[in-house]
Amino acid sequence: QVQLVESGGGLAQTGGSLTLSCAVSGIAFRLYSMGWYRQAPGKQRELVASINTSGTDTDYADPVKGRFTISRDNDKNFVYLQMNSLKSEETGVYYCKTRILGREYWGQGTQVTVSS
Fold first, then answer.
1. For residue 93, which of 4, 3, 7 has the smallest C-alpha distance?
2. What are phi and psi of 75, to 5 degrees?
3. Which one of 17, 57, 81, 116 has the largest count of C-beta atoms within 10 Å of its C-beta?
């Protein structure tokens, strides 16, 4: 059974930092690319960052480039999202996701609230 479990969300001040973690089980983690998504209140879910299987190739949404860092630990089956210089508009539920044979698997999400 594929499971993705996010953690690390919470309340941060504008300009602050948070690190999100996603624990993945039930799959050969090192074989699959991973992504972090955000769903802001009243908006559609959008891609924030993605990482390839080895961690050597990453991609970011333009608004977070230079502030967010996605990484993975293929020995521990974790993917991380380090978020710096947070902005209030980055409040939302953050999800990790993978795709296996055309099927998407999502975690339950972790709430991030950025407030001044």
1. 7
2. -85, -35
3. 81
